[in-house]
Design a protein that fits this description.
Length: about 250
């Protein structure tokens, strides 16, 4: 099974492969490949599975239930729990919720959105023995303020993101997600910190990539612009249901 030490050691040596999974069945299929380093139980399930317009309304209870099922399926990949909005707004709340998450799901690490403003919380979680994956650049949990747009295009914005990356590293995170970060800036950050960077729509120069499984399978319709679908399961599922209904309907 992959550990934080494995993930850190891959920097500069091999690309880190990350995918989301929200349930036992898909997690088991992903893990059987033995090629995926990190499985993220992402708060993106709020949009992908439940049709919500953003990630902020999902509850901790729902995510714990899904993470528990993922954990049962996985033997090879590292499982990371994406802490949902409102569960780490203070250090005390973060610690209380992390302890609950670990006790109820047995995941390997948690992911926290935020940079300089979350260093105290990252440090506190790491100090109780729980690895933390950072997340900077575009922060979906703050989309009401930032919107969905590329980050780091101005000098001021770029400096802020670089500072966030260094702060997250110094706080003890074992890796950091760069979401929708300008490609040249993402490359610069990757070269300037010792922990791996994992990109989402941030170019090809990060240490790894993360994608939503349903996006690469072609289930998400329409597919997002930043990701390449490797199949069109949406079409194949529709056709299979039509065949089933036709063969088993009234004669």
């Amino acid at each position: 099974m992959r550990t934080t030490e494995n993930i850190v050691s891959y920097k500069g040596k091999k690309k880190i492969i990350c995918l989301t999974a929200y349930n036992y069945l898909f997690a088991k299929l992903i893990d059987q490949t033995e090629l995926v380093d990190v499985i993220l139980v992402g708060d993106s399930m709020n949009e992908v599975l439940f049709g919500e317009r953003n990630t902020t309304t999902i509850s901790l209870d729902v995510m714990i239930w899904c993470a528990r099922s993922v954990r049962k399926a996985v033997k090879n990949s590292m499982v990371v729990f994406d802490m949902p909005f409102g569960t780490f707004h203070t250090k005390d709340a973060a610690l209380q919720n992390v302890v609950r998450i670990i006790k109820e799901t047995d995941v390997d690490a948690v992911k926290i959105e935020g940079g300089k403003d979350k260093t105290e919380i990252i440090d506190a979680i790491v100090k109780i023995g729980i690895p933390v994956m950072g997340h900077i650049g575009l922060l979906p949990q703050r989309v009401r303020i930032t919107g969905y747009r590329k980050q780091g295009k101005t000098e001021e914005s770029a400096k802020s993101i670089i500072d966030d990356a260094k702060a997250v590293e110094e706080a003890g995170a074992f890796s950091v997600v760069l979401e929708a970060v300008d490609e040249k800036l993402a490359e610069k950050i990757t070269q300037s910190i010792k922990i791996p960077t994992i990109g989402i729509a941030s170019g090809e120069k990060c240490d790894g990539k993360i994608a939503v499984l349903e996006d690469i399978l072609g289930i998400t319709q329409p597919p997002p612009k930043h990701i390449k679908p490797y199949d069109n399961l949406a079409e194949r599922i529709i056709e299979a249901v039509k065949k089933y209904a036709t063969e088993n309907g009234n004669k």
